[in-house]
Design goal:
The chain has seven helices and nine strands, in the order αβααβββαβαβαβββα. The chain is α+β, with helices and mostly antiparallel strands and 206 residues long. Strand 7 and strand 8 form a beta hairpin.
């Protein structure tokens, strides 16, 4: 029950994670994989997206159950605010591949003092010399949560994930910082001199 009304499970945890990853892939990197084209701000109709996954995704048999309400549920429950809904359409808030040429207007962030970036120890050694680059995406991704940074770092290295501590005030001397979601912040580049330290995630969790 919720507020006196009966409730039901829209998505089990396994399906929610699997669908979230697929939506991220399609909306951030490869809409062509299901025959879709995003508009210049990254939007596509939810119903068109669902139909495309059900009929044109290479593993479409795994998504025969998919309905628009499942996409809406993933958007509403995503802990990092990866997706946005508006007037029956959906887009990824951030993380697009540079080749898609998506343009999104973000509010500027002017008050935070410290942010974090997750990576591996091997990559951190290069980052200390060259700074943090967006690579094949539009922006460098930063977060206010050291734990979130470590989760990202563990995707780069299960054995040696690290959180890079970034001086946000230093970053603003060279460019702007934007708020993509409550936990995720974007900038074009982090200069090496704006890196405060590199912290092993094992030390954070211990």
């Amino acid at each position: 029950m919720h507020c006196g009304s009966p409730t039901f499970l829209v998505l089990d945890p396994e399906r929610r994670v699997r669908l979230s990853k697929l939506l991220s892939y399609i909306l951030r990197h490869d809409p062509e994989s299901v025959g879709l084209e995003l508009d210049s701000e990254g939007w596509v109709e939810v119903e068109a997206l669902v139909e495309a996954i059900r009929t044109r995704w290479r593993y479409k048999e795994l998504y025969s159950w998919l309905q628009p309400l499942h996409v809406i549920a993933v958007t509403a429950t995503d802990p990092k605010g990866r997706f946005e809904l508006r007037n029956g359409a959906i887009r990824a808030r951030y993380g697009h591949s540079r080749r898609l040429r998506i343009t999104i207007s973000y509010p500027e962030e002017k008050t935070l003092k410290i942010l974090y970036h997750g990576t591996s120890m091997n990559c951190a050694e290069r980052i200390l010399k060259e700074g943090i680059k967006p690579m094949n995406r539009h922006f460098v991704h930063l977060t206010t949560s050291v734990d979130e940074a470590c989760i990202v770092g563990s995707r780069h290295s299960k054995l040696n994930p690290v959180a890079i501590v970034v001086d946000a005030e230093c970053v603003r001397k060279y460019g702007k910082i934007f708020r993509a979601s409550p936990k995720v912040f974007l900038t074009k580049f982090v200069e090496p001199k704006c890196i405060v330290e590199v912290v092993k995630c094992s030390k954070i969790s211990s």
